[in-house]
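Deliverable D4.2, example record:
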Amino acid sequence: MPTSERIGSYLKRAEQALHGAKNAALRPSGLTVPQYAALLHLGENPGMSAAALARACSVTPPTMSTILKNLQERGLIERTPHEWHRNILETRLTADGEAALANADAHAVRVERGLAAEFSGEELATLKDLLGRCVGHLEAARIEHDD
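Output generated by the structure prediction step:
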């Protein structure tokens, strides 16, 4: 089957184009897309562990460890031992991290709004539904193959 007929090819190209557009938009804020994603998840879920963040951001634990190290060195996050599980570090945004997230999010939201504007309301709802179905099918297939 030629790549022009493979749905995975279209999904990958769309994901790469979105990643590239967000990288360009985030450049002035000094953050990469994975760093921005980590800050975004921490803004919504303060205290997440590195493992939970890795899952939420769809990166490996070693990659998340590097992301967190870089964000901590820049003073954007702080990591403290969990109150009961001392071997788990909770990660939270610092005031500088909140400011960096707000700045970066303004840039990233522009990319997403521009993309959404390419579709009518009905088309956007259909696209979200179709992509949700793709995710559901692929996650079910992964679980089936893991068994």
